[in-house]
Amino acid sequence: MTATSEFYRTAQSRGAVDQRRVGSPETMLHNGIARLADYRPAVDRAPAALPRPSLSDREVEVLLAWLAAESKEEAAARLFISASTVSTHLARIRAKYTAVGRPAPTKTHLFARALQDGYTSLDRW
Questions:
Q1: What residue segments make up the domains of the chain, in order of their start?
Q2: Where is the composition biased (Polar residues) (predicted)?
Q3: What is this structure's pTM?
Q4: Which of 44, 35, 42, 80 is nearest to 62 (CA)?
Q5: pLDDT tens readout for residues 74-123
């Protein structure tokens, strides 16, 4: 007997569970209702390190300037390059992330990747 079914039986015997609304623990699991334990990492498994693409110093510089800017044109002006050069760098950065299995199609995704890979921190923003 699992702890879930034991809890369920105890609660049901006290009248705390309405069988018609909730169903049995097996039905709940079958219907896609997850248990808290489903979200906890296994103790015996260490989290796998995320594959990190090798971005050049200039790519990191362009990425961070673009993340801080309202537009590619603004980032380009800060770096004294053209907006198309910013676009080219961003396309290469996205391709590198896709190549390691961590696609970043939007600015928000790229911001998350920069945080995950240590290129920036939340304190900076």
A1: 57-124
A2: 1-13
A3: 0.61
A4: 80
A5: 999 999 999 999 999 999 999 999 999 999 999 999 999 999 999 998 88
